Amino acid sequence: MSMRIAAFVAATTTVVALAAPLAAHAAPIHQQADAQALSLAEQAIALRSVAGPGNQTPQVAALFKSALVAGGFSAQDITITPVDDTAYLIARWHGTDPTLKPLVISGHMDVVEARPADWQRDPFTPVVEGGYLYGRGATDMKLDDTLAIAALVELKRQGYRPRRDIILEFSGDEETTMKTGALIADRIPDAELVLNVDGANGVLDERTGKPAYFTWEGAEKTYADYQMVVTNPGGHSSEPRAVNAIDELAAALLRIRHYQFKPELNALTRGYFISAARWERPATAAAMRAFAADPTDRKAIAALSADPSLVGKIGTTCVVTMISGGHALNALPQRATANINCRIFPGHTRAAIMAELQKVAADPAIAFTDVTAGSVATDASPLRPDFTAAVDKAMHAAYPGVPAFAAMTSGASDSMWFRNHHVPSYGASPIFIKASDDFMHGLNERTPVAAIPPAIDMLLSLVTDLSH
């Protein structure tokens, strides 16, 4: 056992003891894979894979390719394709039956921007402290990437031979334009199934730290951006006028802020509310059950709308994300703009939601434009028995007795590009965290190190079952 692996085992065993029952094992049973996942994640976090000048996503791709080649993949079966300032990676493990469609494991290498001055620790200097891995990408989603790599390398180490090809692909701009995700899906339009390991799908109980439940994502909301623009002749600031472009825009934004789109249910969200309610506080659980029974229940709607983790599951949401206005400190504004970001409940078009926003804004002087880039509306993936059975088996291997059920994600992922090709895609990250530890896209992102060993167990089970 190398010093690196020995140190990891000792550290992980200590964390498991402190945060019992997170892991299913008293000590890791795939020590090389566990250690590789953490070490590779630390190296990847140190690379600033953020869109724009100095984007190091291509370096992350090179790092991952080196790890795969060292783990037994042929260099000829791994391609890194530059696109603008980023890149994407596709690696193929050839199966024994070339007539079968491939299993795709999907992730992304880029991360959301993080300003070091705002963080308690430098976001691009990985730190393991207090049982957590800190750094941008610790949860979304460099650790998930390296878990997938380590699991495949472990399977090769064990001598596993898949029947169908396994394709591991990482996009390079999922957090921005999502251009590379579309290119990847175009290159693999005939996949049998996509396992998207983006994000954390396991939920830990806030009080006990025990695994509560696991959700796999069979559908997602449609991403949309709308630009609002108000123009005005302007003038001297010493001569205020009744109509001011910034005031006009602000009034419309407040009307949108207080508007709620019609609450809705579909089969996935109804099942989620019923299944997940048992782990929530009594008041929240009651609201979830009431909404599942009647999506017009006003009391339930109010309670769920007040919870940031649940409001996105009950309908379309729109929020202002950027504003700009004025051209001089001593002049009346000639132009004011805002970006409204919406996550649209399945079944609605972007055009219909923009028309609804225009009606809510109630100001014909405000011009609305759909400026969405890199998004398509898709239907939910089917509830395939082979996939659900594989998830249940993987959960039993890693977390015996912990239930798994379907859900709909409020965000957007590369799954939409595969669904657009009518390829079933399912979000199933094996990481378990508390809701209070979920800092994806926010400050001080972190993930418990003790989540690594059972995550490897889950992936080993899922990949073997889905690639046979």
From TrEMBL:
Keywords: Hydrolase, Metal-binding, Protease, Signal, Zinc. Residues 1-26 form the signal peptide. The keyword DNA-binding does not apply. Residues 220-365 form the Peptidase M20 dimerisation domain. NCBIfam families: PRK09133.1. Belongs to the peptidase M20A family. This is M20/M25/M40 family metallo-hydrolase. It comes from Nguyenibacter vanlangensis. The lineage of its organism: Bacteria, Pseudomonadati, Pseudomonadota, Alphaproteobacteria, Acetobacterales.
